[in-house]
Specification:
Elements (H helix, E strand, L loop, with lengths): L4 H19 L4 H4 L10 H14 L1 H11 L13 H4 L5 H21 L4 H5 L1 E4 L3 E4 H24 L18
Antiparallel strand pairs: 1-2
Length: about 170
């Protein structure tokens, strides 16, 4: 599918509500469990989405529109949630994500982007030149990736409990 802003926005609008339905009201065993090692819990993932909502998508879109490739994107701390989310509940994080997302989508709509704007390039510090369309498509895919990650992390809490049915549950492996 080609990137289409009008098709992308409805997905971005639904992310906070999707996460609210999945996580609010669940015991901490679901929300704060991970898969061990450096893996992230659903709580960590939501915190990450909040941090990137502030530092990534709209700020980088503005850099592309105002500076093109003449100014490299500011680096983003992909692990900021480990300090920024301390002392918060999952409900507070999702409320914050919903508020920031609503503000960012209002800003995105106000840009009145044209096809020429979407083709404009910016410079990512590690990936090189990218277009505004690829940045915005990545925003959508990033949300969906992390919704998948949350579902997978939660499902894997029952990896052993599902017994013989595990072979039918692709999410487990």
């Amino acid at each position: 599918m080609e990137f289409n802003l009008e098709m992308a926005i409805p997905v971005l609008e639904r992310t906070p509500a999707t996460l609210r339905a999945m996580l609010v009201g669940l015991p901490d065993e679901w929300v704060k469990s991970n898969e061990g090692g450096d893996s992230w819990s659903p709580f960590d993932v939501v915190g990450h989405l909040v941090a990137l909502e502030r530092a990534d998508w709209i700020p980088r879109a503005r850099i592309i529109l105002e500076h093109g490739t003449a100014r490299e994107f500011n680096p983003v701390d992909r692990f900021a949630m480990f300090t920024e989310s301390k002392g918060k509940t999952i409900e507070q994080l999702i409320d914050e994500l919903a508020r920031l997302r609503q503000e960012n989508l209002a800003q995105l709509r106000a840009l009145n982007l044209t096809e020429a704007d979407l083709a404009r390039q910016g410079r990512h510090p590690a990936l090189g030149d990218v277009t505004l369309a690829t940045l915005l498509a990545t925003w959508v895919a990033h949300d969906l990736n992390h919704i998948h990650q949350i579902a997978q992390t939660m499902a894997r809490q029952y990896r052993d409990a599902v017994g013989v049915w595990r072979e039918y549950l692709l999410i487990m492996d």
